[in-house]
Amino acid sequence: MTEQYYDVIIIGGGPAGLFAGIVCARNDLKTLILEKKVYPIDKVCGEGIMPSGIEYLRELGITPFIKKYPYHHFKGIRYISRKGKTAEANFKKGSGWGIQRIALSSALLECASSFPNLEIQSGVLAKYNIGENPEVIINNKTLSPKLLIGADGLHSRIRKLANLEAPSPGLKRFGVRQHFKLEPWSLFVEIYWSSGLEAYVTPVSSSSLNVSFLWDTKLYKPSPSRKKLFASLLEEFPELQDRLKKADVLDESKATGPLYQKTKDVVNEKILLIGDAAGFFDPITGEGISLAAKQALLLEKNVVPVLQKNTSNLENALSEYSKKSLNIYRSYQTMTHLVLLLRLWPKLTDLVIQVLHYFPGLFQKLLSVNMR
Ligand SMILES: Cc1cc2nc3c(=O)[nH]c(=O)nc-3n(C[C@H](O)[C@H](O)[C@H](O)COP(=O)(O)OP(=O)(O)OC[C@H]3O[C@@H](n4cnc5c(N)ncnc54)[C@H](O)[C@@H]3O)c2cc1C
Fold it and tell me: What is the domain range of residue 216?
């Protein structure tokens, strides 16, 4: 026998799952999040949240919780070419925040735990059936929520089982990340360009940095040894390597990929996808967290009111969420695609950086367009 008990069940308690949980619970929906790992949760990420994302986090009521943890402002983006030429632009409005995933996870959990309507079970691998009426099995009980939310990340199983996955041909990009104990030398997120790969430096506290690399397996072959991967990538950027020479390494490097994951849609009858589960293109513009937060606000505006009342309109509400979510995804994809084109022609990248160096106003405009 199935029971309803929860209005909404969310599989995955990363940022997207917690954002979704917060908007459901603050609107009086009885909500359950099932997360397979134990908090706080780490993940490969560049750890920079763009100013537009900070605005969304503010709307979600999360920023006061983040402020209890170490984080660092950044005022813009700096590109560094293979020849050491730089171009930089300040954000037109607001600043971005760099914050380690462990700290972000703790802050989000603290915020989410403040809602009595939201139950979070961690260390639990969710068992579910995806059919006409999705069911989740907990403690031998079969629960059938009004809505099942898939927030289970980049390689989402729910997306696959709900037949929402599309083939993702072409782009094969991978990422790796490590933290260093070093006072940030700049108030920018720095992007160092090379042939087929880039390095990213994000200040994440007053005494630590996130250093990440992204590469395209068709254009760059990194060391096959997992142990030597990070060091071999760093060797491609002598200037950065030199800066990090004296810094203590704070953790083991972590890698992930392939990053490009396409979806046919982000809803399916009683299922809704959010965050990376809803499709992911590439982190080159640092927008994953911002997109997930924006989707949670769309969920709140378009779907939550229907769940509060009569679910006979759920199909329309889900299709509205789908339309709007795909719109923001498409515009993110277009901009990301343009930036990604640079990796194909290193000489063009050098030239673009030279032009942006002389026209910082143009760079600033492009940043603003990117953040819509
Ligand atoms: C190299 C790299 C750099 C990036 N840099 C940035 C950046 O600078 N800025 C930015 O905004 N974004 C960045 N991103 C993207 C960002 O990390 C993601 O968009 C973001 O983590 C998405 O959150 P999520 O909650 O959808 O997924 P996740 O954070 O992956 O969370 C999914 C959760 O679901 C859980 N889960 C999975 N299956 C189950 C199951 N069956 N049962 C229970 N739980 C389950 C997992 O344990 C996990 O905790 C980067 C990504 C990469 C790879």
Answer: 173-258+342-370
Q: 41: Cβ below 6 Å to ligand 1? A: yes
Domains of the chain: total:
2
Contact 268, 164 (CB under 8 A): yes
Any domain includes 87: no
Is residue 200 a contact partner of residue 212, using CB atoms and an 8 Å limit?
A: yes
Same domain, 293 and 321: yes
Per-residue pLDDT of 200-225, as tens digits, reads 999 999 999 999 999 999 889 888 78
Q: What is the dihedral of CA 296, 214, 352, 50, to 10 degrees?
A: 30
126 pocket-lining for ligand 1 (C-beta < 6 Å) = yes
* pLDDT, position 372: 66
Return the pLDDT at 66: 98
Angle (CA) 210-108-98 rounded to 5° is 25
CA 202 to each of CA 67, 133, 195, 209, 316: distance values in angstroms, whole numbers, following the listed order: 17, 43, 21, 6, 41
Of 36, 261, 285, the one to substitute when testing ligand 1's pocket (max ligand atoms within 8 A of C-beta) is 36
Q: Taken in order 71, 105, 307, 294, is the CA torsion positive or negative?
A: positive
How many other CB atoms sit within 10 Å of the CB of residue 365? 13
Ligand 1 pocket mutation pick from 34, 43, 189 by most atoms within 8 angstroms of CB: 43
Q: Distance, CA 289 to ligand 1 centroid (Å)?
A: 8
From atom 18 of ligand 1, which residue's Cα is the shortest distance away? 288
Give the per-residue pLDDT at 351: 92
